[in-house]
Amino acid sequence: MNRAPHEIRIVIVDDHQIFRTGLRAELGDELAVVGEAANVDEAVAVVTATVPDVVLLDVHLPGGAGGGGAEVLQRLAGNPATRGIRVLALSVSDAADDVVQVIRAGARGYLTKTASGAEVTAAVGRVHSGDAVFSPRLAGFVLDAFGTGGGETAARDDELDRLSAREQEVMRMIARGYAYKEVAAELFLSVKTVETHVSNVLRKLQLSNRHELTAWALSWRLL
């Protein structure tokens, strides 16, 4: 049977089979699980073989060179066939070091395992569409990992001064993971106008994409 056009193909990577089984049962019908893995080497092999749209990746994994989820991300990024696959970290850990490590390695977001099946399903959809997604409490933990002194604050303010008030509003919402349609509805703008603002923000801040924008906003304590 052909899968529905709206289905998003995913691989679940976690070293606890009970968790993988439970998560599969809770995910929405719009997600199609095409593979599972329990360690670093299995993850790289399964993702390479299935080339899913999104990988749900635990941070702490056995195997490989001991680098856990970050190692999986690095190895996938080194393969042209898997370089563009989007990864959403899903872990019991809410430690800032864990979050920062996998985000720097290329993950598009980070959820803790307290998230419901519906929340994970929604987050996968948003990551698939290009958004960055974080569990609500994680921003504070991540921000604590980035210290800002007086000189850095001045540099941040200088960069913010390049943006109009409306561009700053759009920037913060996009960095928090809102979809263009959600920003448009919240700010009473057209989607096209939101896209234009985002393009201007990326150009003025010399950033390449929304993922870099989220990392920039977190580093400057703007979320």
From TrEMBL:
Entry keywords, A to Z: DNA-binding, Phosphoprotein
Domain Response regulatory: 9-128
All residue ranges annotated as the HTH luxR-type domain in the record: 156-221
Residues bearing the modification 4-aspartylphosphate: 58
Name of the protein in its database record: Response regulator transcription factor
Organism of provenance: Leucobacter alluvii
